[in-house]
Every structure is written in structure tokens, then in C-alpha cells.
Amino acid sequence: MVGTRSRRWILGALCLLLCLPLLAQSDRFDMQVSVQPRTVRQGESLQVTISTSGSESSSAEIVSRAPKADKLKPLGSFSSSQQVSWINGVMSATKTFQIEYLATEAGTTQLPAFTIQTKKKTYHTKPVQIKILASSAPGKSGPDDGGLSIRARLSRKKVYLGESLVLEYILRSQVNVRGYDPQQLEQIPGFLVTDEKLNPESTAKTFKDKDGNPGTEYVLFRRILVPTRLGKIEIPSVVFTFGVQSKQRDRRSFFFEPRVDRVARFVPAKSLEVLPLPEEGRPADFTGAVGTFKLEASLGSTEVAAG
To answer: DSSP code of 304?
Structure first.
């Protein structure tokens, strides 16, 4: 007869043998990448979803959340969700990441590989091919632009070295805008930049489109640029995101308030030519200052004692 202690040992060994496949399965790590849509128009956005599964998913993180891509620009939106469950004593975890990109140029491109880091190992996704169709107009998201467009306006396209010019970002809207981002623009290489303090509401003026529909135009940013080097200098492209009040009601709101949708608009890069200062007519004591100057002289007192 088999003793009680022997029976316990046999049962334990059987349990261990039965659990080995489950333990092996728990170490498995899978990744899937989906992009919707894979064909977009210039100025439209696409959603990237990365799904991971396996015990390592709980520690999974994306290295460099939104890698740079040719003809694609990350919008800054990033979200992740996680779900953990136990099945037959084995932990099963899933984690999902979502990143949004904006198509900036027409053509064929690739969404680059993402790097996923876990506690045990580093993984890489496969690149995904994207087709970008030409847009009807810059600053818009295609035919269904929702009456919202933005453009960059330069006061001149050719300047002399050290001469100032004005760069404005102008919004034309036929919808109710509830905020925008970014609130502050980055510095531009090759320029000294001074940002003018501006309240867009104070710049508002009305307009009518070709069909006679009214709208409002705003200056969101006004920047004074002074070039610091010669030749062609590029002003980088900018992606703006706007909160736009929808005609539909938000059912999650207690009072069913109007829903606010998030939309993106892309301003293409602009370039200008910086010319050297002319030699002809240059004063001998010229030090390089170019622009419009105002000179004033004043006395501390108009009456003084002798000596």
C-alpha cells in the first residue's frame, strides 16, 4: 500500500506536470499593430493602435511614444489601457496603446516601427505602409473640413540679413471653437523670435466664403522674426488641434450639453530668402543695424545754476 506521504508527493508531482503548459503559456508575449485608415488625405489624421498580450504586458511601455515618420506628424495624443485577469491560476494581461498621427504630405510612406520595452525584453513592431492622397487646400482636413482652416502669413518672402518681418497664424472659422493647442509655439532655428502678446478675440473680423456663408477670422499668433543667417531658411510646419462644438449632444453629460470634438489642422512649412546687405551706399561707420528706428533727445532740466 502507498503511504499518505507518498500519495501527497504523487499528487503534487501530477499538479506540477499539469501546470507546466500553463506556466509556459504565461510567458508568451504577443503584439499587434493596426492603423485606421491606411489611406488618408493630406491634413487628415489616422489612429495607430498597438495591442499586447501576455504576462509581460503589465510592464509594457512604448519607448519614444510617437517616433518620427516621413510625411506623418504626431498629434501629441497618447492613451493606454490595461486589463489583467487570472485563468486557472495563470495571469493573463492585455495592454493597448493608441497614438494619433496627421498626414502632412501626399505620397506613400511608412509608419515606423515602435519599440516596446518590458521588464524582461525589448520588442519591435513591424512598419506599416500608408498612402496619403493630395488635399484640396492646405490647412484643411479635406472636403469635410467643418468650416475650419488655418494658414501662415509672412509679411514678405525676401528680407535682408538683420531685417525684421512678421509671421502670423490666421484661423478662419465658421464653427464654434472651444479652445486650441498649442498655446505657445517653438523657437525657429535661424531667427531671433519675439512673440507679440495677443488676444485672438481682439483681432476678430467677419468674412464670407464663396457661397456667401459668414465666418470669423482670428490671428492666433503674431511673431516678429529677425533672420540671423543668409540663404533660404525654412519655417517649420505646425499642427494645431481645436475643440469644435458639435451639433450633437453629449449623452454622458447630465444636462446633455453639446459635444466637443477634437479636430486637427496642419500648416505646411514656409521658406524665405535672406539676402546680404547691399554694399552700395553703405556708410563707413555702418555696424549692421537694419530697420526702422526712433531717436529722441531730452534734458534732465531746462534751468541750471552757473557752474
So the answer is: -
